[in-house]
């Protein structure tokens, strides 16, 4: 379906989701928020999907923000609902039990940077521009930008981006820890897919354990987080994948993980 606001393609165990409103630089309107929610719920439930790659259609933008034309008409109650729907969808991504890689192919502004930040890893084209420009519209970030940027990059960077509204380039985003890797634009897709395939070959339950520990640990005191990690670690000994991974190491062969 090429007229859909969200395209979905499976490349083996990697599901590639592409926000598809290139004429609006992939801005997030309500229909796109809902399509993302449905697609990530489906990816979570589908055992054939081991990794999700999220990107934007066209050469210019990952996502240039929430849809400004749609927001212009909202009442306060509708604005709150819009924020809550975006936040719910992004929390679904953040807590997905399998890795999500944001392939940042251009502008990631406002809701676009918020969308990239709820993904587990971010790989950006060297041409990408990232920012939280909401104040320029008389707004503030509403899909978690003030909170996730704070946790990713700290108070100074969060206040700089959110107060000035000025975009930064990919190299600066890497320096601030907002993205994991920056690659030449022409190599972005190949490198993002290589990363996704590497993750897809890994042990799914172990990846899920890491994601659960990091999500839980981000919200609790270190003692609780360490106890949770030890419990998750113990649970790994109940998996076939743990026997396979350790056994393959000892037998000097490549492991084959089945997610059990
Ligand atoms: N919401 C709705 N439409 C958007 C949009 C957004 N966040 N960002 C871009 N668009 C639309 C433009 O209105 C334009 O539509 P039109 O052709 O029907 O007029 C189209 O996408 C192309 O954008 P344009 O501004 O012409 O491209 P540009 O290359 O000159 O500028 C940007 C690119 C990203 C700098 C500019 O589009 C921009 O500043 N966008 C808004 C970013 C923002 O504030 N995001 C946070 C929202 S909370």
Summarize this structure as a short list of keywords or feature phrases.
alpha/beta, Lyase 2-enoyl-coa Hydratase, Chain  A, domain 2, binds coenzyme A, 260 residues, 10 strands, 48% helix, single chain, 2-enoyl-CoA Hydratase, Chain A, domain 1, four-stranded mixed β-sheet
SSE diagram, text form:
Blueprint: E1 6-11, E2 14-19, H1 30-45, E3 51-56, E4 61-63, H2 68-71, H3 76-94, E5 100-104, E6 107-109, H4 111-118, E7 121-125, E8 129-131, H5 145-164, E9 168-169, H6 170-175, E10 181-183, H7 188-200, H8 204-217, H9 222-236, H10 240-250
Parallel strand pairs: 2-3, 3-5, 4-6, 5-7, 6-8, 7-10
Antiparallel strand pairs: 1-2, 8-9
The structure holds coenzyme A (COA).
């Amino acid at each position: 379906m090429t007229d859909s606001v969200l395209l979905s393609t499976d490349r083996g165990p990697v599901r590639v989701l592409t926000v598809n409103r290139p004429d609006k630089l992939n801005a997030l309107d309500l229909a796109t928020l809902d399509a993302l929610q449905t697609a990530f719920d489906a990816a979570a439930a589908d055992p054939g999907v081991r990794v999700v790659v999220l990107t934007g259609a066209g050469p210019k933008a990952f996502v240039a923000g929430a849809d400004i034309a749609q927001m212009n008409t909202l009442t306060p109650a509708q604005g709150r609902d819009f924020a809550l729907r975006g936040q719910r969808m992004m929390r679904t991504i953040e807590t997905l039990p399998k890795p999500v890689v944001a392939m940042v192919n251009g502008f990631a502004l406002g809701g676009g940077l918020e969308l990239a930040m709820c993904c587990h890893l971010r790989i950006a084209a060297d041409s990408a521009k990232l920012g939280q420009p909401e104040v320029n519209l008389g707004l503030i970030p509403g899909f978690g930008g003030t909170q996730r940027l704070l946790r990713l990059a700290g108070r100074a960077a969060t206040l700089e981006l959110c107060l000035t509204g000025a975009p930064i380039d990919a190299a600066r985003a890497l320096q601030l820890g907002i993205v994991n890797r920056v690659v030449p634009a022409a190599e972005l897709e190949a490198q993002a897919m290589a990363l996704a395939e590497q993750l897809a070959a890994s042990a799914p339950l172990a990846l899920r354990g890491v994601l659960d520990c990091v999500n839980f640990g981000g919200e609790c005191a270190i003692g609780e987080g360490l106890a949770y990690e030890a419990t998750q670690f113990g649970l790994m000994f109940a998996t076939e994948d743990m026997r396979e991974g350790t056994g393959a190491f000892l037998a000097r062969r490549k492991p084959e993980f089945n997610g059990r």
